[in-house]
Design goal:
By secondary structure, the chain is of the alpha/beta class. The chain has one domain: Alpha-Beta Barrel (TIM Barrel). 34% of the residues lie in helices and 19% in strands. The protein has 9 helices and 8 strands. The chain has an 8-stranded mixed β-sheet with strand order 2-1-3-4-5-6-7-8. β6 (150-154), α7 and β7 form a beta-alpha-beta unit. It comes from Pseudoalteromonas translucida (strain TAC 125). It holds the Pfam family GDPD. Residues 1-207 form the GP-PDE domain.
Length: 209
């Protein structure tokens, strides 16, 4: 809610598979961010939603995220430990058909480029972000080959050549996770199109937005 109130350009979340649904949670294991124990994929959504994720907060499902956002801003859905992509694709399509979100407000990213390739065939219109924590030999070619909309790069593995190469290939380039002012300035100097940050209010204030 706070992110929407300060007017962010988008919200990035991590999607993990439960036994019967998709959950919005960063870790593959429940132990660090909830009072549960075990892997997310070994429990039902109903069980996970009973856990305390801190201050009485609950772990939401993907559908609850769609409902809550109500097309107010872009959702970057990063596929982490996810299975049954047909179910995921069908759920995305259903929410677009029912006008809970527009196609322009969905960006699906992953380090698993095989999943991105499958999704691009299933949903050719889908905006995809190819994640990397390296500077590949051919720079952003891997993202272009996937038909990606954007390439998402680790702030510690980026240079001007990488940025320029991505743009020459028609890709948007985003850097993650950029919280320090010195790093924000460096990313701007390199020419990235946007950054992911844990502190959007501070970052917007620094940028003068």
């Amino acid at each position: 809610m706070a992110a929407l109130q300060i007017g962010v350009d988008g919200i990035e979340v991590d999607v993990q598979s439960a036994l019967d649904d998709y959950m919005i949670i960063h870790d593959t294991w429940l132990d660090r961010t909830t009072n549960g124990v075990g892997k997310v994929c070994n429990f039902t959504a109903a069980h996970i939603m009973q856990l305390n994720a801190g201050n009485g907060e609950k772990v939401p499902t993907l559908q609850q995220l769609f409902d809550w956002n109500n097309n107010q801003t872009l959702l970057n859905l990063e596929l982490k430990h996810t299975f049954n992509l047909e179910q995921f694709a069908a759920q995305v399509e259903k929410n677009i058909t029912e006008k809970r979100i527009s196609a322009d407000n969905i960006l699906v990213s992953s380090f698993d480029h095989h999943q991105l390739a499958w999704l691009k065939k299933r949903l050719p219109w889908l905006k995809m972000g190819a994640l990397t924590s390296s500077i590949p030999i051919n720079y952003a070619k891997f993202a272009e080959d996937l038909g990606a909309y954007s390439v998402h790069v680790d702030k510690n593995f980026i240079n001007k050549t990488f940025v320029d190469d991505a743009k020459q290939r028609g890709l948007i380039i985003y850097a993650y996770t950029v919280d320090k002012q010195q790093d924000i300035k460096l990313m701007l100097d390199l020419g990235v199109d946007g950054i992911f940050t844990n502190y959007p209010a501070q970052t917007k204030a620094y940028l003068g937005d």
